[in-house]
Design a protein that fits this description.
The protein has 164 residues and is of the alpha+beta class.
Amino acid sequence: KTLIERLSQKIEENTVLDEDEIMHIFIELVGALLYLHNFQQQGVQRVVHRDIKLQNIFLKSTENQIHVKLGDFGIAQQLNLVKEKVRDCVGTDIYQAPEIVLGYFYDEKVDIWAAGVVLYQLIQRQNPFVDGQLKHAITHKIYKRTRASSGMNDLVDVIFTVDP
């Protein structure tokens, strides 16, 4: 089951994911991204997924635990050099980090931004930035605070830092 299917199910049931479940999913997602970003094997180093979104996050349930798996590595990019960055404008618009939207060089941090968009969507059940105003919104950090705890809102604020 994908994360978007899980979220859609909750919306249909008119319920929300509780904060503990959201945090567990987010921690699993960040763990998977850290694995990719630090990957070194057989000449491949530092993989940037570049298409983190609800549809590409899969949930696998075992007994009492949910595990996150990433899918769709079609536009993933490896960065062999320590400071290597890329400039391609790829991925799904609403998940794109400011560096991509503005046409700058970027690295694996764009995946963390996209994970922040996923986090926001899980909390609010909507996108943090309005289509058509994305460039203005992300450069001016315009998005609604979530209905979550102040700690969760602080996490969203840190992730949505432009030029970290």
